Amino acid sequence: MAEVAPAAPAAAAPAKAAKKKAAKPSKKTGPGASELILKAVSASKERKGLSYVALKKSLAAQGYDVEHNSAHVRRAIKTLVGKGALVQTKGTGASGSFKAKETGEDGVY
């Protein structure tokens, strides 16, 4: 009998298809939390300032998803108070009441 060479393994396993990375969703356009907060507080006519709860209601009325972005709102408030754009009239941190800082003649905070 003729010797039969063992069958060569099927050509190397076909190369696996490269995994495609999921495309990142495009960044939302529009004003950020800080801009919306400044707009809401400056539009308020409250003498003692706008409370945190009222501010969240105002943002929700403008179409901002406060429930899912509450951390962004708190961080934006703390940042604006630190920069001096907002004045905290009551409370500490992100709770309490806030007023927009009075602008000078040049319109800069």
From TrEMBL:
Composition bias, Basic residues: 17-27
BP GO terms, sorted: nucleosome assembly
PROSITE patterns: H15
Residue ranges of the region described as Disordered: 1-33
Main location: nucleus
CDD domains: H15
Record-linked SMART domains: H15 (SM00526)
Protein name (Swiss-Prot/TrEMBL): H15 domain-containing protein
Start-end of Low complexity biased regions: 1-16
GO molecular function, one term: structural constituent of chromatin
Lineage: Eukaryota, Metazoa, Chordata, Craniata, Vertebrata
Record localization: Nucleus
Transmembrane segments: none
GO CC annotations on file: nucleosome; nucleus
Superkingdom assignment: Eukaryota
Keywords carried by this UniProt record: Chromosome, DNA-binding, Nucleus
Protein species of origin: Seriola dumerili
Record domain H15: where: 29-102
Similarity remark: Belongs to the histone H1/H5 family.
